[in-house]
Amino acid sequence: MPTIRLKNVVKNYGGDTNAVENLDLTINDGDFMCLLGPSGCGKTTTVRMIAGLENITAGSIQIGDRMVDEPNAQTYVTPEQRDVGMVFQNYALWPHLSVADNVDYGLKLRKMSKTDRDARVGEITGKLSIAKYRDRYPSQLSGGQQQRVALARMLAVNPKLMLLDEPLSNLDSRLRLEMRAELKRIHAEFDATVVFVTHDQWEAMTLATHVAVMFEGVLQQVGSPMDIYDRPVNRFVASFLGVPPMNFVEMGEKSPQAASAAEFLAGRVEDIEGIGSIGIRPEALTVERPNPVRSSGQFVLAGRVESLMPTGGSWTVETAVGSQRVYATALQLGDLQPGDRIELVAPAASVHVFDLNDQRVRVRQ
């Protein structure tokens, strides 16, 4: 499978702002790379540029040892010559063709013999558990079945590179879970390089070998899912990943929580005045009864329980800390009730610190 290299890639649609800005990204052979970010961040534009459906404005894209798009050198390789397979959010199945004919479509274009085509269609539809639907039309299938047909049509031509643009967004939660497992199996079985576009952090966390987080056309961070979750490079990445989202304490405010943060940071950073905020994930906080004796290695916020929200296997505890709402995740509540005075306690290693420009700061533990 090929390695994909995007170097200083810019995409502009004619306005004052670039849709993608100086993107440097390498997607290695066999990777399952998720492009993650909110709507309008440039992730779909990026995958369409890799596919050749969008021309880049500047920079270069290389797939394997072949340059496929480089405006300065007047190099451009058409989508059908890039040997990529793509699945769109709306699946784009031919409504007048049966399942078998949809899967066979790309093989016909490659002028394979009917015997070889029939064997390939049978093999792929069998692997994706849709062989029994081969004579049905897309309108006669469920969303999950249509998804499998779209994947089968792509896999039938054995592309070197698979590009998936939010393919699960139209499915209900149970089907999404099933298809995530299916995609992981396909990635392992077909030994493919996959680029997967999503705004769903859990899809990225559960599917990807690497995640590229984008915001307003700019690549923010690339790394393994847990690297990005545990060591976000800036406040945007920290706040985008996590449900409930990360809690933040603003250092510039005159509040009890800011005072607690300043006390915690004393001796841990060179210049407290240069710190803009600290962040703590809800699952890093434990809810405890007030205790006048605490370890210096802990960060503590005093507050009051506002509400207790069940989420199935755990509880989300909403607390009031001064005028701010802070959320913690608890596996058990004991006798905790709304109105109780509590302390939210986090180990020092779980506190994220950001400077005045929202960039991550290393601290002494």
From TrEMBL:
Q: Which Pfam families match?
A: ABC_tran, TOBE_2
Top-rank taxon: Bacteria
- Mind telling me which InterPro entries this protein's record contains? AAA+_ATPase (IPR003593), ABC_transporter-like_ATP-bd (IPR003439), ABC_transporter-like_CS (IPR017871), ABC_transpr_MalK/UgpC-like (IPR047641), Mo/tungstate-bd_C_term_dom (IPR008995), NA-bd_OB-fold (IPR012340), P-loop_NTPase (IPR027417), Transp-assoc_OB_typ2 (IPR013611)
Residue intervals of the ABC transporter domain = 4-241
Q: Which UniProt keywords apply?
A: ATP-binding, Cell membrane, Membrane, Nucleotide-binding, Translocase, Transport
The protein's GO terms of the molecular function aspect are:
ATP binding
Q: Which PANTHER family match?
A: MALTODEXTRIN IMPORT ATP-BINDING PROTEIN MSMX, TREHALOSE IMPORT ATP-BINDING PROTEIN SUGC
What name does the UniProt record give this protein?
ABC transporter ATP-binding protein
Q: Which organism is it from?
A: Arthrobacter gallicola
